[in-house]
Structures are given as C-alpha cells and as structure tokens.
Amino acid sequence: VIDIASLYKQTGAFTYDPGFTSTASCESKITYIDGDEGVLLHRGYPIEQLAENGDFLEACYLLLYGELPTKAQKADFDERVTRHTMVHEQMVWLYRGFRRDAHPMAVMCGVVGAMSAFYHDSTDISDPQQRMIASIRLIAKMPTIAAMAYKYHVGQPFVYPKNNLSYAENFLHMCFAVPCEEYKVSPVLARAMERIFILHADHEQNASTSTVRLAGSSGANPFACIAAGIACLWGPAHGGANEAALNMLAEIGSVDRIPEYIAKAKDKNDPFRLMGFGHRVYKNYDPRAKIMQKTTHEVLKELGIKDDPLLDVAMELEKIALTDEYFIEKKLYPNIDFYSGITLKALGFPTTMFTVLFALARTVGWIAQWKEMIEDPSQKIGRPRQLYTGEPTRDYVSIDKR
Ligand code: ACO
C-alpha cells in the first residue's frame, strides 16, 4: 500500500485511477470483502452466519455500533427504531406532488432528500446524539417511505406502520395490506424478506456508499447524503441490476435461447452483458448469491410455485456460464442480483420496486459508513484530482471574429 498523500506532499505526483480500481478512499472497520475467496464479513462476522441466525435489526446494530447486541441492547434498539417508524403526515402531500406513473426510485430520491426539511432537528452533524437520532430515523422510516412509494405507484391508499410486527413483517404489511381485507404475513416470506435486507445491508466502498461518503465529506446533512446514495444506486450497473437481470431472463424466455445470449455476451461488438454476472470485487462466487439462491427456492416452495420459467432459465444460464471458457477466464460469477429479482417478483413486487428495496436495506450501511467518516479525526473533504486533457491557454476572440 502506497501512501499517496505523503508522496504528493514530497513530490507533487498524483495517481490516475479511473473507476478507483486500485485506490482506497478511506480506512474502515465496518465491512471486509475478499473478492478472490468470495468472503464477506461485517465487523468480522461472516455474512452466512448473520443471514442464517440473526434478524435485520441485529445486523443494523452490529454495523452501527461494531458489536452484536446483548438481549437488553437489542430490545432497546428495536424499541428505539419502532418508535420512529411513522413519517410526518405532511409527507403525504409530497408523494401526491409526483406524477402517478413516476418511477418509485425517482420518488425515493425526492422524498428522502426532503427528510432534512421535515427532521431538521437532527441535522446538526457535530452532535453525536443527533447523528444517532438521524441514523435511527433513517433506518426506521425507510420501510414506511418505500412502502408509500409502492402504494402510490400502484394507486392504493397508504398503510401505516404496525409496530407489533417485526421490521420485515411490517414492511410487507405496509406494502400488501389493503383496506377491508385481512392480511397475514407468512413467516417464511417475512424471513426471506429479512434475509434479503441482511444480504444488502452493506458492501464497503461501492459506488453508492462512496457517493454518500463524498457528499457527507462536505458536511452535508445525513438525509441529503442518503438521497445522493439512492440516486447513485439507481444505475443499472449497480442497484438497478436485479431489475435488469429479471428483464433479461424474461427476454431470453426459454432454455433453448440461452446459447444465443451467451454468444451475444461474448461478442465484443455487442454491448450486451449478462446482467447479474460479474462484480468489480468478487472474482469468485458472490457469497450473497449462494444464500439468495437458497432463499429463492424457499420462497417458491412456500408459494407453491413449482415451475417458474424464469427460474429454469436462471438455473440453466448459471450452469452454462460457470462452465464456459469466457466466463471462467474473466472470473464472471453470478452476483446477488441474479437471484434476488426472481425472489422479489415471487414475493409480489413489480420490477420497478427492486432497487427501492435495495435502497431500504442499504440505508444502514450508508449511514454507518457516513458516521464512521464523520467520527474519523483524519477526515477531509473528498476532492479527487484530474488529468486535464483540454485546450492550452488561448486568447479570447470577440464574437464577430469567430
Ligand atoms: N457479461 C459479459 N461480459 C462481462 C460481464 C457480463 N456481465 N461483466 C464483465 N464482462 C467482461 C467485460 O466485457 C470485460 O471484458 P474485456 O476484458 O474483454 O474488456 C471483462 O469482463 C471485465 O469487465 P469490466 O467491465 O472491466 O469489469 P468491472 O469490474 O468494471 O465491472 C460490473 C463490474 C459493472 C458489475 C460488470 O461485471 C457488469 O456490467 N455486470 C453486469 C451488471 C451487474 O450485474 N451489476 C451488478 C453488480 S453487483 C451490485 O451492484 C450489487
């Protein structure tokens, strides 16, 4: 590891690294990834163990505080989050200002950004207590905000949080309960939702987290920073990939058409890529994808879906890609987005909601990373350099002489 900051001070030299492929932007104690081995740890704990044994709020506590909670700490944390699940009633008017066919991610960018206007009493970032209140507010209100975006999208009345339910149950309830009908959340589906949230909770310095850190480095308030992260997450190369992966599986349609798409993915003159394959850091199987695959099967079994053509295409595509020279050589394995789309569709979400669910779950990672940055005494405003490739100095020419 080269300390570029001191190298720059001594020599004036700086590095050119488009896409930050080999440049660390910060020190962090939150998440560790070994991309070659396919390992993901949060505060040292393997993702497999967290997803198997704990719930999402336990993972939130771990990311925020650095340790797993005791029983009393967990009960207190759950209570604090639950107390903040409601949003200010005036926020309803904010939703109504959007076109009813607006993409829910467009709504999310606006509504989360506007939280700083509703909760400006927790925007003093110099006060540790206010930082924690803003963090709790974000974790607590994101399911409500996301469910409201969904209800607005499908034209149904908003459903208020039910605080005797777990985090995932409450979210499913706010999305799928309708007036005058009994809605009971299936424990298997709630557990699957919980696992999806845990798997997406943090992933070190990906594009959206780096965006949150960069926005936060100027001292911007946490709600504005999270809105910036949501905007970045929306891109199809990042959080939009599960929506794109499901669309791709539907476009392929049947197992016999897979070779045609594999050929397209390999053709350098064709911009097509197999969505849900490849990762900047994992050059091995994404550990989250394995858990996601298992969760997909559990959800389909619970819902009695025996023959899902999309799942058939996905399983066969994975099999072929894992034995294909091109994919082996380039170390392209399925990432989490490959299976999450099928699961979310089975749970009843339209594809337009997929990235919203990712944003909901990633909020804790963003806010934990933001807090870590603010609390780091060596923190500076993020200010990348550039290699200027434009015109050299030249003289102004008056408009009648051009
Ligand atoms: N299908 C076909 N070829 C691919 C794919 C793919 N999905 N991904 C990478 N490649 C090829 C590239 O064409 C490139 O080939 P080359 O060496 O001949 O030029 C090589 O593999 C390396 O690809 P890069 O784009 O340099 O890898 P990078 O690390 O920049 O990109 C990314 C990673 C963006 C995830 C890429 O693999 C991709 O576009 N995948 C599809 C989108 C996707 O699933 N995104 C989700 C990411 S995970 C997340 O956000 C939760």
TrEMBL record:
Residue positions of the active site: H279, D337
Gene3D superfamilies listed in its UniProt record: 2.20.28.60, Citrate Synthase, domain 1 (1.10.580.10), Cytochrome P450-Terp, domain 2 (1.10.230.10)
InterPro entries linked: Citrate_synth-like_lrg_a-sub (IPR016142), Citrate_synth-like_sm_a-sub (IPR016143), Citrate_synthase (IPR002020), Citrate_synthase_AS (IPR019810), Citrate_synthase_bac-typ (IPR024176), Citrate_synthase_sf (IPR036969), Citrate_synthase_typ-I (IPR010953)
Xref: PROSITE patterns: CITRATE_SYNTHASE (PS00480)
UniProt-listed GO biological process terms: tricarboxylic acid cycle
Highest taxon, organism lineage: Bacteria
GO annotations of cellular component type: cytoplasm
UniProt keyword list: Transferase, Tricarboxylic acid cycle
Molecular function (Gene Ontology), one example: citrate synthase activity
Pfam families xrefs: Citrate_synt
Record-linked PANTHER family: CITRATE SYNTHASE (PTHR42871:SF1)
Protein family membership: Belongs to the citrate synthase family.
Protein name (record): Citrate synthase
Organism in which the protein naturally occurs: Limoniibacter endophyticus
